Amino acid sequence: MDAADAGAPAHRPQALLLNFLGALVLDADLPPLPSSTLLDLLADLGVGEAAARATLQRMVARDLLNRGQVGRTAEYTLTARMETVLRRADARVSSPDPFAHPDGGWTLLSYSVPETRRDLRHRVRTRLTWAGFGGVRDGLWLAPGTVDVADVLGPLGEAAGLADAFTAQPMPGTDVTALVHRAWDVPAVRAAHEWFAATWSRPPRVAGSSAQLTLLGADWLHLLQVDPGLPAEHLGPDWPAQASTALYRRTFDALAPAARATLERSLRATGRVA
After folding, report:
1. Which residues contact 3 (CB under 8 A, 6 or more apart)?
2. SS3 of residue 143 by DSSP
3. C-alpha to C-alpha distance for 238 and 30, rounded to whole angstroms
4. Which segments constitute the Transcriptional repressor PaaX-like central Cas2-like domain (predicted)?
5. What is the mean pLDDT of residues 51-68?
6. How crowded is the C-beta side of 175, counted as CA atoms within 13 Å?
7. Domains of the chain as residue ranges with CATH
8. What's the mean pLDDT in 234-244?
9. In a 3-state reduction of DSSP, which class is residue 59?
10. Rounded to two decimals, what is the model's pTM?
C-alpha cells in the first residue's frame, strides 16, 4: 500500500452499495438485482461475504431495500424511501458546481439538545455536518449558502423543534476568513481535495468498472462531506474545488458506460435481462 492508499477514507459496505445503486440502478428500469450481483460487487471492493449479507439484511430492515425470493435466489429492489435518499444525494453529487452557493450568504443555526439525549445530539451533528455546517462554538453552527434546515432536521422528528436558524450576512468589520478557519479545518479540507486528485488521476485501485465507479462515487461523496462549498476567497490561492469537480465528472463519464454494460451482462447471465 502506498501513501495515497494509506490516506483513503474507510467506506462502510452500506455506503458502497448506496453509491452503486445511485449511479447504476436508480431510474435505470432494471429488473430486481439477484443477491449474487451485490455480493460480487462488494467482494471486488474487499468486503467479506458475511459482512455483505449482514449489510443487505440491515438495509432491508431500514426500509432501503425490498427483498424477494425466486427459487433459492434472493433478489432486491429499491424502496420508495431509498429512491428519495438517492435522489436527495444526487442533487449535489451530480451538480456541475457542487461547491458553489449562488446566493453568497450564510445560514446561522443554534440548537440545544438535553445532555440526557446524547444519541439525538450525535444524529443532529451528523446531519448538520452532511448539510455543510461547521461548528463556530458549542451549539452554534454556520453553513455557506441558504440551507433548508427543516429538510435537514425534519427526519429526526423532535430535533426540528430544538433548532433556530437564520439566513445571515456578515456585518462590516467581521473577519469572515478567520471565522471560516475557526469553523472548518481548512488545511484538512485542502488535503482531502489533494488526495482525491492524486488518487483518481492514476489507475483505479480496484479491478472492474462497476467496482471502480462505486469507489469513485464513495470517494466523491466523502469529499463533498468534507468540503461543504467553502467560499474560495477565504481559502487561499489555487483552491482545488473546481479541479476536483472536473476530475470527478471526467472519470465518471469514462467509467459509467462500461459499468452499465457490466451490470447488464451480470443480469443477463442470471436470466434477468433478455
Report:
1. none
2. strand
3. 43
4. 102-170
5. 97
6. 5
7. 1-100+185-274 (1.10.10.10), 106-168 (3.30.70)
8. 91
9. helix
10. 0.87
